[in-house]
Design brief:
The protein has 119 residues and is an all-beta fold. 0% of the residues lie in helices and 55% in strands.
């Protein structure tokens, strides 16, 4: 069993930055991909970013490429999402999830953290 707890969300203005954190506990997530997803009101949950735990390769949704950066600290079992140049359309509940498999499906999900960006 893995527990994922997100933090760092909040209400900001367009152009601001936020850093989300995801603390994983229960077991070491070495060799697993971890990811961030988001769900805006009235929309389906969508992929945001994913990072390979051991190889350190990353992938991003086109909508956030160049603005968001996913990273991880293996020693602390943490995953981060640095979000810069935030836009109102980034408003959503952000979820940490993993291990991320084919089709961006994940076994474990956090409870989510709200990010609200006003114009």
């Amino acid at each position: 069993q893995v527990q994922l707890v997100e933090s760092g969300g909040g209400a900001v203005q367009a152009g601001d930055s936020l850093r989300l954190s995801c603390a994983a506990s229960g077991r070491t997530l070495s060799n697993y991909r971890m990811g961030w997803f988001r769900q805006a009101p009235g929309k389906e949950r969508e992929f945001v970013a994913v990072i390979s735990w051991s190889i350190d390769s990353t992938s991003y949704a086109d909508s956030v490429k160049g603005r968001f950066t996913i990273s991880r600290d293996n020693a602390k079992n943490m995953v981060y999402l640095q979000m810069n140049s935030l836009k109102p359309e980034d408003t959503a509940v952000y979820y940490c999830a993993g291990p991320v498999g084919p089709g961006f499906r994940a076994d474990y999900w956090g409870q989510g953290t709200q990010v609200t960006v006003s114009s």
